[in-house]
């Protein structure tokens, strides 16, 4: 197989019309936030063989504790020979795996990242506009291959991760469920942009043929019908994404996830309990010095697709201090300071074009469907205070389609909550005797921010062990779900 195979997905040829935004400018492909082609499996320049050879044997090197000395002996390679965006992404994937393998692949966490990793990683992350750490992009979006004819990334059974820390099927499957979700959700991007565009500029009533005019043979659908149809497709697609989520159990065992995979996803932010009180020192060599950095680790919460669905529907996630708990990620790290909530903060961990895309969509269609549908139904921006007369069938169908779509996304979040319970909360309460110092347990401590939750003020930085940690994590995820339900709260007359 060549290193740059074309991907044929079921929806690839579907969209040919003119979009209100040029998706290419945002590095969005016919596979959505996934690349158009199977990501490179190896950098073609022999110069980068020291990285490639090491990452190829990563699970073994971690298991026999030889990774750190091998990384320490790596030459400091320049990024000057990276020639294409695919190659920059490949370098980011390789360095991300080596970084987390190095930090977490021992009995204690490594506090200092050597210049052989730090220098090229900082250069690559600067080029891609993404933090120098493993992210959803390096673990999922740019880390897959497929054995299906046409390399269809929506075919979960044919997907495989290119790299894992553990060499387990469980880890590959954990990443690939997200890849299939991204792929199956991809057609929603152009579809929903069209729908927003149709509805936003004051929707016209259905064109009524004038009595003297000749009948129009195939009148184009009205903006309201266009949006209704798109929302109904969105509902079906989100339902299918939930079916994929349900398949996590097929090959990813909760014990393996919690005790073996998850520790490697951890970041360096608020990880004192796991042995990183100051984060990780990125050593840039004797000339430049270096500095301590505290960063989140890789998380599916960094998915641009799920945030796109929020933006389209107009789901609002509250800021810290407005009742939201700022949680430590399952991959480590706690939500940002007072000004940012989780969803805003993790945008900083998305590839720059994807982050820009979400911001531009928000700016162009503020409030998304919630605003647009609200205007149609009540003549207001969805706050339910309008006068509104009797609604026609078309408007009622639109309102119903919108509420059904928000309900579908809330149900998706509900399934996700059940997964988090099975994969984190329950295993965190069970003993694990496999390691001297259990980094999984240490890195799963949750810290509640000094935010008021249900009237109970929790001490800033007050840590809870994982046994009770789920009590901090679950309210955050429940809040996300409930905010989604709330976005659909219209009363159709
Ligand atoms: C074993 C599987 C999974 C586990 C244990 C898990 C766990 C978690 C945890 C603990 C969080 C809290 C924030 C964080 O730590 O970053 C989170 C957030 C999130 N996860 Fe997952 N997750 C899993 C699979 C997935 C999948 C497949 C997706 C789909 C792309 C997903 C999407 C999200 C999203 C969007 C958030 C942000 C909260 C929200 O918007 O509701 N997760 N996940």
Automatic annotation (TrEMBL):
GO terms for molecular function: heme binding; indoleamine 2,3-dioxygenase activity; metal ion binding. Residues 200-223 are annotated as: Disordered. It comes from the Eukaryota. Pfam families: IDO. Coiled coil: none annotated. PROSITE patterns: IDO_1. One of its GO terms (biological process) is L-tryptophan catabolic process to kynurenine. Keywords: Heme, Iron, Metal-binding. Belongs to the indoleamine 2,3-dioxygenase family. This is Indoleamine 2,3-dioxygenase. It comes from Parathielavia hyrcaniae. The lineage of its organism: Eukaryota, Fungi, Dikarya, Ascomycota, Pezizomycotina.
């Amino acid at each position: 197989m060549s290193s740059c195979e074309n991907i044929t997905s079921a929806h690839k040829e579907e969209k040919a019309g003119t979009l209100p935004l040029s998706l290419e400018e945002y590095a969005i492909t016919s596979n959505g936030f996934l690349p158009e082609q199977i990501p490179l499996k190896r950098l073609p320049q022999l110069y980068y063989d020291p990285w490639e050879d090491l990452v190829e044997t990563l699970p073994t090197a971690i298991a026999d504790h030889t990774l750190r000395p091998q990384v320490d002996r790596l030459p400091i390679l320049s990024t000057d020979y990276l020639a294409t965006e695919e190659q920059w992404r490949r370098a980011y994937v390789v360095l991300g795996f080596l970084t987390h393998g190095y930090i977490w692949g021992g009995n204690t966490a490594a506090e200092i990242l050597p210049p052989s990793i730090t220098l090229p990683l900082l250069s690559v992350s600067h080029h891609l506009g993404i933090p120098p750490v493993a992210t959803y992009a390096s673990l999922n979006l740019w880390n897959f291959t497929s054995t299906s004819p046409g390399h269809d990334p929506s075919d979960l059974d044919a997907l495989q991760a290119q790299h894992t820390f553990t060499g387990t099927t469980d880890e590959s499957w954990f990443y690939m469920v997200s890849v299939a979700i991204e792929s199956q959700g991809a057609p929603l991007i152009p579809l929903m942009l069209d729908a927003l565009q149709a509805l936003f500029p004051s929707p016209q009533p259905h064109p009524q043929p004038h009595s003297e005019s000749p009948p129009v043979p195939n009148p184009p659908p009205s903006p309201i019908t266009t949006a209704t149809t798109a929302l109904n497709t969105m509902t079906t697609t989100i339902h299918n994404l939930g079916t994929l989520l349900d398949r996590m159990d097929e090959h990813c065992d909760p014990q393996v996830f919690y005790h073996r995979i998850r520790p490697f996803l951890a970041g360096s932010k608020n990880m004192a309990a796991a042995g990183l009180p100051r984060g990780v020192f990125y050593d840039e060599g004797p000339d430049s010095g270096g500095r301590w950095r505290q960063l989140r680790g890789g998380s599916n919460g960094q998915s641009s697709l799920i945030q796109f669905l929020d933006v389209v529907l107009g789901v609002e996630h509250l800021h810290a201090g407005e009742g939201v708990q700022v949680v430590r990620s399952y991959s480590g790290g706690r939500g940002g300071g007072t000004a940012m909530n989780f969803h805003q903060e993790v945008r900083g961990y998305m590839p720059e074009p994807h982050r820009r895309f979400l911001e531009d969509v928000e700016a162009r269609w503020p409030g998304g469907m919630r605003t647009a549908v609200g205007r149609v139904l009540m003549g207001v921006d969805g706050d339910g205070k309008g006068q509104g007369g009797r609604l026609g069938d078309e408007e009622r169908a639109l309102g119903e389609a919108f509420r059904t779509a928000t309900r579908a996304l809330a149900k998706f979040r509900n399934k996700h909550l059940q997964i988090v319970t099975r994969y984190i909360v329950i295993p965190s309460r069970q003993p694990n005797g496999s390691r001297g110092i259990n980094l999984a347990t240490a890195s799963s401590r949750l810290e509640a921010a000094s935010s008021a939750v249900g009237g109970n003020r929790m001490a800033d930085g007050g840590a809870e062990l994982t046994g009770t940690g789920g009590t901090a994590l679950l309210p955050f995820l429940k809040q996300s779900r409930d905010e989604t339900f709330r976005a659909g709260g219209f009363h159709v007359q």
